[in-house]
Records
---
Amino acid sequence: MQKESEVIFSKFSKGLKSLVRRKQVDSVHVRREGHQLARKLSAFDLTAIGVGTTIGAGVYVLVGTVAREHTGPALTVSFLIAGLAATLSAFCYAELASRCPSAGSAYHYTYICIGESVAWLIGWSLILEYTIGGSAIARGISPNLALFFGGEDKLPAFLVRHTIPQLDIVVDPCAAVLVLTVTVLLCAGIKESSLAQTVVTTVNVCAMLFIIIAGGYLACQTGWVGYELHSGFFPFGVNGMLAGSAVVFFSFIGFDAVTGAAEETKRPLRDLPLGIGMTLSLCCILYMLVSVVIVGLVPYYSLNPDTPISSAFSANGMQWAAYIVTAGAVTALCASLMGSLLPQPRLLMAMARDGLLPSFFSDISTHTQVPVKSTVTAGILAAVLAFFMDVSQLSGMVSVGTLLAFTVVAISILILRYAPPNKVPLPSSLQEYIDSVRMQFDAENLGTERKPFDDADIVKQSSHQFEDGEASNQYPLIQKQNSEDKQNQRSRRRKIALWNIAFFCIGVLVLTSAASAEYLPRLKNLVDLKCRGYLPRTTLLVMHMLTSLSSESPYL
């Protein structure tokens, strides 16, 4: 009976360990078995993918709603604050992408830094985000196309929405056709799809530049009447401006699509951070300039919440500008659709490589060097949802998945800095050299009491650099194994760092919940915030002390 209980406990402990096991970092120089993704993307291609995914049609509607309800003329400041907040998250993605340049984005980083169970949750959250987000974008294209052509009656019959009375659903053939078209384009190859993304994104950016230039000229002619108001620059106060920042923050979501193409980047260590940075910079500048012009053309309370940009031009005698604005909205939706469907097959491929999905999804085409099976599966699923379902009610789940992904990426940075994974794989050429040296040491020490040579003997890598994917002829120095006391000390610091990271996350959660508690009086809320803010500050102080006391760098 006791042996059976011990066996059950052993199996249970192994099951728990499997939930928190972490995979090793993929080196950019290691070549996997089988066919590989084509490394054809440059920093410019990544920027086009990021900008196209980030700038959706929402900005063409969002400026009117936020200005009327939250910010007034201070809309530009709200975009600036939201851009700075998005930049902090982009820094986390950029560092992880350069250190772990592999497909999977936030799922891949979570698997390395946190564990398998959380990575599995993040992976499915991202799949839900990409699928529902792509379907919602596709269903938003047909109304804009109808507006561009002058009404739904001007569209071909097979593209017009139809209602099925028996099922009480509205089918959208245009959305399904667009999703399938983008799927075929993605199956053609990464370079071809990135070229199409660049063309569509360029048209969208040109439409926004027209809004900025033409709107600025009209505003100069009319004297910027939108800023000459008695209510001032902050009619809703600072709280309204911050509330507007929270709303427009979601217009910066999409830069994480750049990390989904990590394995298809020519020089990932340089191009991935550069692509993320250029994407956010361009988007923030365009958003701020558009908001400056539109809020200055007409008073904020006169903006049409549905078509704010078109109505602002129409109020100044430029009704024909609505066609350019609609064209920009359509191309923005098409670019966002391509950006939503691009990372999903790579994510399915990464999960299949790790054994969390069937190996069917990890197959790579020998002709196009893209995961065709995963792309077709994801495209068909998104097309079916876009055709049959009104996914607007499920769009809120996309925001939840994005928030969850951003949170675990930030936590992964803390773990990578203060409690990094135990082993960091070396390039294959170095690993072969280490194996040969180990065999030599084992042969020399045979019959003695010395312990065999182990990978732990390598404590530092020489300062050689890798260029063009080839390892240098300089190899790491071989040193003796660290003493047990030093290893135990490092283990204790690691545990302290992990506990402090956990307490820091709890402190931030408690602090944000206290900040959003409307039922507390203002004075009591401020006192509560001050008291609860001590926990995250204390944990940060402890982690800083651990770093300063450590004799070696905490970084990988």
---
Amino acid sequence: MEQSPSLEDCLKLLQGERDEQRLAGLLLVTKFCSREDHASIRRVYDAVGVRFLDRLLRTGMGKGTVRGDQGHNQDAYLQLSVTVLAAFCRIPEIASSKDMVSKIPLVLEIMPKESASSFLEECYEFLLLVSTSCEDGVASLYESGGCHTMELALRLAQLILSKMSRESINNEYPLELSKMVAAVAREFALLHNALKFEALHLLSAILSSEHSSPVHEALRLMSDNMWSTYIRVGIVAILQNRVAPAEKLQALILAESSISIIGEQWLIGPMTISHGQEPQDPIPADRCLLLVSESARVEIAVLLNELAYLKYEASKDTSCTAENILSKQQNLAIAFSLVEKIIKLISNISGGEGSSISESTFIKVISGIDETIGVVLEYIQDAKDHGQNKGDDLLASVRIIGSYLAETPTACEEKVKGLLSYMLTIEGEGESRLTVALCVHCSPFYAICFLFPMLCQITMKVEGCKILASSGGYRAVVECLIKLIGPHDHLVEDKGGIFLACDTVMNLLLKREQIRIRLDEPIFVHLLKALAHWTEVTSDPTVLLMAGSICSLIFDATSEAALLSHPNFELGALNSLNQLILRSLAVGGQGMSDDAKALEDLYQIVAAGYSRWADRFPHIKNFVERELIVFGK
């Protein structure tokens, strides 16, 4: 069996008398020599010699010859020379040598003539390593780069971000990165050539990373936030001109990151960056809002159309299709996030928080949002028709629908009514793992949470309750509340929807006779146990009265004997409910402060219910009356 060449074999070739031997040795080295093995790299460097490396590079550039070359291998020589130069310069002593510094002008000369990304990456790596190893390297880079200095700086920064751990860089150098953002943002606003896109890509890479929180915080703490204006100006310039769709998407990603740092108000702000005389035709402060809204609308329409084709019509047998779907889902998430933030901004403005939006922009933005919601509902309908109810794109679609309907619950009423029961079944990729971990019922979780603001609104009326009751959707709502407050609630990070969930369930229970839902189902037994768990260690009167009210309304339709006969209900659970009812009544009987007057209605539900069902719950009745006597109440 033939043995693979060793490092010693390569070194013998590199020290050979003929150039063909040295070339063969270098080619072998690139195949098996690790970039971290500095000792071996040093031996290779010493063996090959700087004179041969210089001749190899110049031959690749067409300025010299390697013995034995017939002029047909120029590109290969150039690629090989740059590869080994970048590898050698990973050793600081080699990178700082005069021989390497002298090659900076040559590398800069060849870069504009090459387009292969891997080749250019090695060129930038060489320039980065040499220029940062010694002062002569920096001087040579500056003197040789001339007007290309900005491009090199941007490219080198991108190279660092692509090669290093993003998490480590962000955690170790948040202040430095925030200063870089401020500097690059200014160039992003001022440049009017291809470098504008380089600045866009760098800003997007820094600010949109999942590890960028430390940088975001550093930017918030900066005394001068002019960087945010520069980014706004740059994004507007990109979005209002004819540029490639990929560049517009990058601009939207950067806009989403900027809003995450500053808030929705970032969308409205000054568009002037000069400190001198104001331009004759200043750009309106709401131009960024209009362009981002319109661009996000177009992006969503295109992405949903492409996703529908890939999921339901294109071949599903290729990994390329799966990767394409994932990429489009990620882009869709950005566009959806922007629309959600715009909905929030418009809601705040409509609520009287002041406005710099012109009437025409306001109308266009609202119209665009309405159109987007219509497209999203069609996408959900398409998924329903194809029997699909799982996917992060579908879950994100439900979320944006929920955000929209929270502000306008009667919008798209017929479409929403027809899709509501289906939307309550939608779950994201991997959500089943959460359901299994929760060890409870199997209904989806996040989709229901996203819809709670709307569900809470529509169940205030009997018609809305009937929609949930007729479709069985009330069960999914109750199961979701159990997950939020039950024994496994520590597995649920976002508990912001608890009170919306409680209000929705309360609305259903208060209208149960009109909508005819059965309260003797096992799910309501599980809810009683979850409510008892929720209130075990709290003294919050809102929590106690909300839980007590729901319990009281469920007790209206059952009895102690019926509960104790249920296989999943034991005496210990009844004892916990004793405490809940007692504490609810005690809180309401203490004389509420002005701030707590809003809880009076909840107390009345508990007290009035107790008077109706107490005789059917002798265990609770005896406990409550005994404790109230003890405390003299």
---
Amino acid sequence: MQAGRRTGKNVPHKVLRYFPLAPRLKRLFATSKTAKLMRWHQSGKSTDDNVMRHPVDGRAWKDFDSKHTEFADDVRNVRLGLAANGFNPFNNMSISYSMWPVVLTTYNLPPWLCMKPEYLMLSLLIPGPQFPGKDMDVFLRPLIEELNELWENGIDTRDASNDRKVFKMRAALLWTVNDFPARSSLSGWSGQGYKACPTCNENTPSMRVIGKTAYFGHRRFLPSTHRWRSNLDFDGRTDRKRPPRRFSSVDIMDQLRRVKTTIPGKHPNYGGVKRKRGDDELNWRKKSIFYELPYWAEIELKHNLDVMHIEKNICDSLLGTLMGDPHKSKDTDNARRDLQNLGIRSELHLYEDGNKLMKPAAEYTFSEANRRKFCRFVRSVKFPDGFAANLWKNVAQNDSRIVGLKSHDCHVIMQRLLPVGCRSLVNKTISSTIIELCTFFNQLCARTVNVTDMVKAQDQLVIILCKLERIFPPAFFDIMIHLVLHLPEEAILGGPVFMRWMYPFERYLKRLKDYVRNAAKPEGSISEGYVVDEALTFCSRYFDDIETRFNRPDRNDDGIHRTRRLFVFESQCKPMGK
């Protein structure tokens, strides 16, 4: 043995846990029940071209089938969606740890099943403790290789619903579902800076205000003859800019050819050196690994904008500003200085009173009395069981603030409470604009989406955003406010939102978190727990005479209890008490 040479076993710095996809897809065809359900997207799709209740009714699915007819001919070929999100596996949130599971869902299934946790498949478990960032593609490599194999060659699969005959099953990835920061890591388009919008691309409407970038200037989406184009109340200038053009797949590929190839890694010798992007690279940081899939460049909807996080961020901004919350309000001193710099809304400018700097009250902020009225209104609302959390717990004891709202709490407030609660507390111009925005989210999140409604909403949202620009200061308009403009178009492409947002995947992370038994090895605990749970789930599909997760009654299952002889006295509900 040479002197000075290290001995012993080498310990890897990180261990990536990969769960092969093909065996689990074959397992869906192993039982007759699930094998029949894998054909639902063909037999259950909407017969009305104007109504969408499943991604199969969206334009992106139809466009994919028209370009890949050989794949579409066999309805058993699998369409997949991918979601990736980071979470802290420990109950102690003071510990900084970010683990990234990559989860797949099968869109062949009916809409009431494909987002159930029993049908979500954990594919990758990217270890912590740091966010992978630009190195995400390194960890996605085994999944992309298997997806390429499933697309090009397929795999022999036995169909239990067709006399157990063997067929060649193929699979394709339709899109990804992520929050906006994770979307930037997967797509390669940076969600920061003047060109943060991935749809508007290089024509993103933005401006610099004190301390931040505001995505302000939605008049450019109006018709060129609209009277608001010449109005100086927005930013002190007229707007004659043309709307951003639509970028085709060919345009995107031309942009990606100009992006320099970077080496992944954090070490200075292996890609870790920060570099400044060239002007011709726009906001592209890299060419995503998904472009190694032969069909990816032609997909119309590659990365979904997550409605869950967009709605929560808008709710936080609206509520914080309306309530005058010092921590969440967008109506800051710098926001007032922005108005002064633009030379608009002089009644809101800061002024000095002796040695004090005074901030005039704005129309879009509740008075102290109205703030208490709104808090008492939220505290008094009663919801059906399971509809929403107890929101009265989020109202401060002195009825002055609403704190600690979760994503679903914001979902309920935006669509149910805020349109009603703000009507009598602010003037009609402000309340009607907020109500129109909340009505759009209610329409967008419906189980069945109407194409005509989404086309109309596209034009209405431009008007709504322009109204908001006349009400709130430019600092109010972060990227989440702007992204609302593109949600109707994505609904037309992808179908109903409830199958393309993060709610089911966020709930699934809670299940993975419950698997952690050894805090020293969280990834290993999750892997072992998931494999056991997956085996039990598959076995339970064969048990009909005992209670399993597939035949367990609902929590509020009433059933029919026939206790009367005359049908007019029969009760359709479960009796309570003796």
